[in-house]
Amino acid sequence: MIDVSAFNEALGIMFTSVGSWGWIVPGLIVGLVFSAIPGISITMAMAIVLPMSLYMDFFSAIVFLTSVYTGAGFGGSVPAILMNIPGSPSSFATTFDGYAMSQKGEHNEALGYALFASTLCGIAGYVLLLLVIEPLADIVLRIGPVEMFAVAIWGMMLLGSLGSTYISRGLLAAAFGILLGTVGMNTAGFTRGTLGLPVLLDGIAPIPAMIGLLAASQLLSLATRDYIIEAEGSREVSLRKILKGCWGTLKYPGVLLRGSIIGIIIGAVPGVGSSIGNLIAYAETKRTAKDSATFGKGNPKGVIAAESAVASGEGGSMATMLALGIPGGGATAILIAAFMMHNIVPGPSFIETQKPMVYAIILNNIVQAIVLLAVGIGFIYVASNIMKVRTRYVLPAILVIATLGTFAVTGEAAGPITLFVFALLGYALNRYQYPVSAVVVGILLGRMLETEFLRSYQLSGGNPLYVLERPGAMAIFAVMFISLAMTAWGKRKQNRAEAAEAEAMLRMQDEASHAHTPSKG
Amino acid sequence: MTDFTRRDAFKISAGGLAAVSGMVAMPSILRAATYPSRPINVIVPFATGGYNDRLSRAFMPYLEKELGQPLVIVNKPGAGTQLGNSYALNQPADGYSILCTSAAPYIPLTVLLQNAPYKVEDFSMINLPSRDYTLAATSSDGPVKTFAEVIDKLKKDPSSLSIGVQPASADYANMVLVFQAAGIDASKLRIVTYDGGGPARNATAGAQVDVGFVGGEGFLPLKTKIRPLAIFAAEKVEWYPDAPLIGSTGIKTDFVEGSQRGWAVTTKLRNEQPEIYKTLVAAVEKASKNPKSIETLKLQELATTWYGPEASDKAYLDNAAKMAKYVDLLK
Amino acid sequence: MRIGRHSYDIDYGHLSLVTFIAAVVFWYLLDARSVSLSVNNLLLVQPVAIFALAMYLFILPQCFHRVDAREAAKSPTQKDPLHVTIPSERSDVMRMLALGVSLGLMVFLLDVIGFDIAIFLFSAAAMAICGERRPLRLLLFSLGVTLVTIYGFRALISYPMHTMLL
């Protein structure tokens, strides 16, 4: 638990180095802007500013870099909500309801919800971190492949909530996505499906593929419109509406809490980062919600759930980094490098000998989250003005930026080419009513599924009863099944009542879809 | 309309291409005399934050001082350094691209296992200060206390302990060699594969696997969470003196040295631009011997030892030869 | 096409998409099997690939519509207000395709004609596709996009960008 004297010393560090506080706002702005550029992930944003931080003193450098990290955690949701382009995999789930809301003209509110969910849960994540940093670190190391496989399966269950007119097409799309996600060298060193191209040895780059798939379905179709939102009246940018969204977040404490817990735990596990936490938080929130039918059509709870898991994941990831010196994801790997460049090696000995410094870093992150509230409102106010610009100006610029963003990942044409190939695939899938998001989920989780499944198999020597030796994994599976069963039970009555209506709806949809699919021959 | 402009642009760009290639083909002597006259790219075939990235960034100011030009770090991760290596070979041999990489065993492994389109000899070492060794370790609160115990248990029942290792690595070769020497049936072992040293270390420290075979240097921050069982080195390792040497465990086995990291250039540069090559070697030597750089890098747990091009090249080629000898164990 | 007493209409687009996916999956399975038959290689890939191929067989019939059924389905939508917009949808589809093709050209020409030229041309083409016709705006805005993105990204990333003029 919290060490009071170290905490007091940490407050001392905070106030004696007030000069370094000046780096918070620039750091947040850099993080927000970079991560709002499609294709530039949090990791890249931090890699870009790392060299700058070498010339600062230690605490200033850490404040600056963690501010970039905090800002970047939210920035990705801006293009996700306004244009349906997730800046990085961690804001993928934000697109589901965020973009739907903005299409209804509720982009102000959606961004407000996202900002508040992000900051509140960011703060919650760090407060929890302050209390349990050491025990959490120990638990994290114990999480093995079986537990991770359970988590990956949980992530895949999101598919069930995506909904599709044709279940068979959804399943094919998901299986196809998983297979695409396993291309390249697997964890046991076997290389498949690379066509002899060295760039594919590490697999298909997920960010360009994801942007490509989603861009085709949304960005290209913007060419047919004059503005991103068609209704003229809804294009306004209103501070009042943003604040209304911010305030509205507080009405869903349950969603925030669930998202935070999922985010912290998954964020703390090394090598997973926040890319899966948002999917699980979204799926869980949707499944347990009474109004689950409106998810994906602009339900604010969807935005809140996704964003809360992303923001709290930062705290979890930071815990693993500080307490063990292990990067939870790419961004914390860069933070570790920054520590080392200032001659400080994070890890168990660091946390024992320099506890006040650890607390000071955590406290500073809480301050950053609070500052983000103000800076974020300003940022989304400016960014929302994109709604007022005609697509003939927005679209070319965004497509160019996305292309260069995917180029920036490795500095090779492979990124933009991946973007284009997947744009074609996305277009075809969309046209014949295959859920594109199922392919994206498959690509994002395919590798993790295979890796953890394979390690579980290797570890158990092929004996399925091994799972009985892993109480953690059993607990995850149990929670998953109980939650599934409870929802099924609770919704039975409701479903019965809605069955007739739903059937009628389905019939209509089916007919409509037949009419929409232009048939040749 | 767009078609027309595109065709036009093609004409313009064709002219531009000719002009640029003319500049590249500028007489090499002219460039050698003024070298270096512009910033030099340091190609790091790993992501930001890894050992080589940190080494290059920490060493950068001292090397910049010697060369008199700024250095630009270019991270080109992917395909077990193959992408970065190919990229380096594609740059003009003019001394404006140098490598900071884990030359061995990554370059030999990409050649042997991935059919990389270059040869081990295409790279020439300037200095490889960092030498890593495979460490067999277990979680600090694990039941196994010594390496002899591991061997005993596995001899009785090869599936009694799980083993974490990165496939197609020096660590994997060492693991197979030592078990062969001890007469353990490798086909019945419970081997858990990790696609990198980091995950394998986490699994070892967290007792997800009973024994991990993985590069020892990366364990240093986690030192308190593990118990070293055997290190695959011939003599006492400076940065991990309490790790028992594999020779002291009673098993006679050959072994492969782990990662050798540091500075390299393409052999083409060394052969075609001997003057530039000499300038670079002298600069790296001076920077490596600079007391300030030694002090700074030591604090960051980075190596600065000066072995020189001959010794580094020999170590690199020896490692490559050993990898080639044991390549069948890795497949 | 006639099978038995019924006449069928084939949705060739859908048929080729789903067959393409199945072919890719099948090839991937063969490629993986040719590398190694070890469980460590095929544990997830093989079952998922087989599942995908099974789904293909399940979806295949959906590409064939019975003609009478289609006509039955079609008649009510004639009254659908959406029906009127179909011609404009066709031009919309053309726009999207044109934009997609321009994107592809840009992507593949980046290294050939330089990032600056490719971006400038794409930007102008995309504006034209989205309905901008005034030459001055086409020129100036595309120029602006090119300058900002090239210099912006050059400041951000350390990779060399092949450019012609900038």
From TrEMBL, chain A:
The chain crosses the membrane at residues 20-50, 62-82, 110-132, 139-160, 166-183, 195-216, 261-282, 322-345, 357-381, 393-426, 471-490. Keywords: Membrane, Transmembrane, Transmembrane helix. InterPro entries: DUF112_TM. Residues 23-440 form the DUF112 domain. The keyword Transcription regulation does not apply. This is Putative tricarboxylic transport membrane protein. It comes from Ancylobacter aquaticus. The lineage of its organism: Bacteria, Pseudomonadati, Pseudomonadota, Alphaproteobacteria, Hyphomicrobiales.
From TrEMBL, chain B:
Keywords: Receptor. The keyword Protein biosynthesis does not apply. Gene3D superfamilies: Bordetella uptake gene, domain 1 (3.40.190.150), Periplasmic binding protein-like II (3.40.190.10). It holds the Pfam family TctC. PANTHER family: BLR1237 PROTEIN, TRICARBOXYLATE-BINDING PROTEIN. Belongs to the UPF0065 (bug) family. This is Tripartite-type tricarboxylate transporter receptor subunit TctC. It comes from Ancylobacter aquaticus.
UniProtKB/TrEMBL annotation, chain C:
The keyword Lipoprotein does not apply. The keyword Methyltransferase does not apply. The lineage of its organism: Bacteria, Pseudomonadati, Pseudomonadota, Alphaproteobacteria, Hyphomicrobiales. The chain crosses the membrane at residues 12-30, 42-60, 97-126, 138-157. Signal peptide: none annotated. It comes from Ancylobacter aquaticus. This is Tripartite tricarboxylate transporter TctB family protein. Keywords: Membrane, Transmembrane, Transmembrane helix. Residues 47-160 form the DUF1468 domain. Pfam families: TctB. InterPro entries: DUF1468 (IPR009936).
